[in-house]
Design goal:
homodimer, BirA Bifunctional Protein, domain 2, Rossmann fold, 2 domains, 17 helices
Chain lengths: ~450, ~450
């Protein structure tokens, strides 16, 4: 038998249980918040017709699509994000009633150059409200973003808001021609988006050399990005900058409305305007935002999103507005592990039931069944191995309690229970075993 | 803007919320049972190197792989099942301690000819114990299979067990040469596997015409398949059929051990021997089983699995035994919906909070926030639309309660709550709203 080298593709990962356990805990917490906000689950296929995905992600993005011909010679591609499939779904099904709020947690694939923290397969988690142009929807998503983090136990974070119309207003003011994908405006915005990462000097250089702005244009962009003050002070400065009826003024008014709702409903504490937030993707048309963990300043955004009022029209022929947030499960998990909000664990079950020898298999299996029927998670050692080996397995696999079920114990209708942390061992009757362990395992055993 | 026709690929599906809600409920129930049995979550990539997947599924299976060249000219394929990636993982990571019990719930892709109930993308749900040759592991998985169904509220089901060695014994007895994939033995077993679907006549015809068996061979196969009686009676007949030390006898002894453990631990009620269970896949080497819903006799198996002691060796160079079960999420869901064990639902949230007009947006957002902070799921209508339209939305989206938050109510620190089922409307103070709805929504709101 020729051996095949076991390995994964570059940019792809296996998640072993120690990583998966906190990850699932986090996802369950996220889903609870989605449900509390009335968001509904949706699932779309991993593979789409290629033409569903092309023309949405810009030239750079499109190069990263995993595309191929299937057995029926159809051009297909693995999904690149969850937003475009959502837009397709909304256009496709008449039974969807608007406003429609859905969430989806699923992997997406991008053939990026792998780098630290950048993978070719990663799980996105999106929530969107489709069918409302009202800033209530934008405020609701900002509120959701805050509750998602708070619900996971994160205390220090900020949500930084901006508006694409404000940025378009700035572009108009400095004379950069407007337009969505692959235009001068999109190029300048991509550079602006990098400011927090690359700093002021490098941003200026790129604006000059890559985007072809002159010195006064660069100066104006930087002056804009440096507007500071309270939310209402910044909003007033923006109103001063943009004339009545201009696109920039409209963006400032939208921002103002979002903050009015947040403040009036008691939910603005974590949100602030940040004019350097630009978001890379082409389809945003209004509000945009990113969330940052307060205690990890260099970590970058863990969540982002915004309003896209033209995307669904590509499939539908009529414009349907949408606004959403997207978070990278793995990035957020990394942040929460670093903050200690979540912990890696080797096991969910805290109890191992051992087997004395093959002739006692049924007794041990019965003991495990009894615990499970009482809602106590346990692993049954699945062979009649040496007891020392079974204890080693208990330790390596993160168990705290070992149940020893030998022939002496069986004859007395008892088992012995050893606490691996204290080393203490006690005899417990079969009838008393589930209550005994329930009381001790207690909060350690997070049954969902 | 040219319109792109919104559509999904043949054999692929979107899951809208009404389908997703019971599906997620079912998956959550399955995960609870896995955890109670001490199984650990694992995740592997959707894409694998092609050579990891080839040579494992037989000639027919291999044709169904979605394969292509990636941007780096690597030959890759979408995963076909969850067992081969598990085998790769066990061979690849030294930190995995055996016995290792893991579960994985994830989509797999097969370019099958689409048919009713057969899709090219479907979610598999697997649980396996790796590293034990002992029949305790097999009994544990039979027990798990029973608890999975019982835990979902299914009362009537059977688990039918067989053993590949028993079938190999039969083949040896009638003179069919042994062997795994694409051999005479595998061909005969594939035909035997079809018996429940195609009936005795057709099975006999295939055994003659496709597998080239003579009349006496066919007769012996059928006599074997018709062995009936209690478990111990069938086991005795098998012992009579196969000589001491033969592979068939070994299979009968393995079956006998599994039943001894199940009976001794009080868990055999749903399990029975069925010698016609053969399982299509090549890699099974011992115990095999399938689960059937008792009240849906023609529905086919909803779960299946068995022991595979040679698969991991392909990656590892040394043999590591494994035994597992696999269930098709969508098939089982279909069965549970048909049985009425699960129900389709349009919404998880039972409450809609309405908005009187744009100037009251903050008040309504505040009311929604108050409910959510009390753990009550609610949808906030995200725009200042006509109240009639908002009530229509509540009905279409499956809500039971509508909270009306108008200016009169706001001035009295109140809201009105309407019960859509009775049509009754009451004024409730803001302070009393969460308790009022908590008491009424109660069990309707399944917060995980």
């Amino acid at each position: 038998m020729s051996k095949v080298e076991p390995r994964v593709l570059k940019g792809f990962r296996d998640y072993l249980p120690a990583q998966m356990i906190p990850r699932q805990e986090m996802i369950a917490g996220i889903e609870r918040t989605f449900q509390r906000f009335g968001f509904l689950p949706l699932m779309t296929p991993a593979l789409e017709y290629l033409d569903i995905l092309t023309g949405k992600y810009g030239e750079e993005g499109e190069k990263l699509l995993y595309r191929f011909q299937d057995q029926g010679e159809r051009s297909v591609a693995l999904r690149y994000d969850l937003t475009v499939p959502l837009a397709r779904v909304v256009a496709q099904y008449a039974e969807i009633t608007l406003p429609f709020r859905r969430y989806q947690i699923a992997p997406v694939w991008r053939a990026e150059k792998p780098a630290r923290g950048r993978f070719r397969e990663f799980v996105q988690c999106d929530a969107d409200i489709i069918g409302s142009r009202d800033m209530m929807a934008d405020a609701e998503l900002v509120q959701l973003a805050c509750e998602l983090l708070a619900g996971l136990g994160v205390e220090q974070f900020t949500l930084r808001l901006n508006n694409r119309k404000v940025l378009s207003g700035l572009m108009a003011k400095i004379g950069v021609p407007p337009g969505p994908a692959d235009t001068a405006e999109a190029g300048v915005l991509r550079t602006v988006d990098k400011l927090p990462k690359i700093g002021e000097e490098e941003t200026m250089r790129l604006l000059r050399e890559e985007n072809g702005l002159g010195p006064s244009q660069v100066e104006e962009v930087l002056r804009f990005l440096k507007l500071r003050g309270s939310t209402s002070e910044i909003l007033n400065q923006l109103r001063g900058l943009f004339g009545e009826g201009s696109v920039g003024r409209q963006g400032a008014e939208e921002l103002s409305q979002v903050f009015a709702i947040l403040e009036g409903s008691g939910g603005s504490g974590k949100a602030a305007i940040d004019l350097s937030i630009a978001r890379g993707l082409n389809y945003y048309t209004g509000t945009i935002y990113e969330a940052f963990l307060g205690n990890l300043p260099g970590f970058g955004a863990v969540m982002g999103g915004g309003r896209y009022d033209s995307l669904i029209g590509i499939f539908k022929g009529e414009e349907i507005p949408g606004v959403g947030i997207s978070l990278g499960i793995d990035r957020l998990l990394e942040g929460l592990l670093e903050l200690g909000v979540l912990k890696q664990r080797e096991s969910v079950a805290q109890v191992l039931v051992t087997v004395f020898d093959p002739s006692r298999a049924a007794f041990s299996a019965g003991v495990a069944g009894l615990l499970r029927a009482s809602g106590i998670s346990c692993e049954l050692f699945p062979a009649g191995a040496k007891i020392k080996k079974q204890f080693q397995h208990a330790e390596r696999s993160g168990k705290t309690w070992v149940v020893v079920a030998g022939p002496d114990e069986e004859s007395r209708n008892e088992v012995s229970v050893k606490d691996l942390q204290t080393g203490k061992q006690e005899s417990v009757s079969l009838d008393g075993l589930a209550p005994y362990l329930s009381a001790r395992v207690g909060g350690l055993d997070p049954r969902p």
